[in-house]
Amino acid sequence: MTTRSDQAEWWPAPLADQPISAHVTLPGSKSMTNRALILATLARSPSVLSRALFARDTELMMHGLQAMGVVVGVNDRRDETLVIPAELCGPAQIDVGNAGTVMRFLLPVAALADGDIEFDGDARSHERPLGPVIDALTSLGVNVDHGDRKALPLVVHGRGAVPVGTAPAIVEIDASASSQFVSALLLAAPRFARPLVVRHVGAPVPSQPHIDMTVEMLRDRGVVVDTTRADEWRVEPTEFDGFELTVEPDLSNAAAFLAAAMVTAGTVTVEGWPARTTQAGDRLRELFAAMGAQCELSDDGLVLRGPDTIAPIDVDLHDTGELAPVLAAVCARASGPSTLRGIAHLRLHETDRLSALARELTVLGALVTELPDGLRIEPAPLHGAPFETYDDHRLATAAAVLGLVVPGVTVQDIATTAKTLPDFVTRWRTMLDERRR
Predict the structure, then answer these.
(1) What is the pLDDT of residue 435?
(2) Cis before residue 195, ω within 30 degrees of 0?
(3) Smaller CB count within 10 Å for the chain: N or C?
(4) What pTM was estimated for this model as a whole?
């Protein structure tokens, strides 16, 4: 592990010498891009995705699909992506990196392939849970060789179809650790041989907006998805044509840029913010408004004006946990103690985000208490220090936010932001330079 004394990979976070005033344009949503790539793969004719995200997570998804025979072509400007479906086949080897959507969404797709599909990834990926998806596929007759670990590395022995028969296939899973377990099964279900019923049993599913996104994107393709029963989803086998889709800007990646306005009492406009969306990041409007911001949504996008004094917040982030790292950074600058609750599942993300945030905010001088399901953050005078990221892009952007107002913050491995926003550093500096012009 990189130590704090190893300065070779540390990025000096730029300091804002005045309130931020900037217009920000963001690339496409990772969540929408990877779901669209799966659906385009299962369509019966080519699809065109406009403004898809090109970052590590989405490129891993593209490469995984290509390994199974799908053609993914990109024009020179990278503003259009052509997906030509094919008969899925192996043998193939797929690198999932540390991308939850890739390691989970591609397992059911691999079950539809004819041949052996091997999966492996970064060291952290071996620790991330896959059991509910593996158990569901096993119950459907799919042979998954995982060495009794229910984790990577593993091999899916695809037989070209899932499952045989005519009666609905019913699987029960515990998705309390990740909504991706549900989405993974729903996305592949239109190509199953019979209806699939997924029932969740356990504590409430986190990140419900991501399941809502999956259901909406399926329905947009004409797939019948019954959600009338709580914690149950039924998907009918459906053939659908290729499609054209313009991917929305990634609203979760907007968090750091909006937070820049919060901590500097500045103004940031995020262009192209949709009036209606299933993205979890849309909740940023509500959260930052509760902390004193003025938010205005217009045809041009979302305009956020940061307050002179940031109000503390006590909030349940169960459905929007990906916003917690940047929100925690803003809370460290609030006028009183804040509590972020309902996010125990963040311990199973790219890193244990709760422990990592508690540790790194404390290094900067904040008073942080790690709770069973969240964090309590009490502001205190902050000072510059190295901020480790644990190969987690959300921690890196949270550190950059505090670096705007705390001299001397250095961020370990800022390049980890390439997971969902490969040009983060350039966009961050552009935001600062716009104010200085």
Answers:
(1) 62
(2) no
(3) C
(4) 0.94
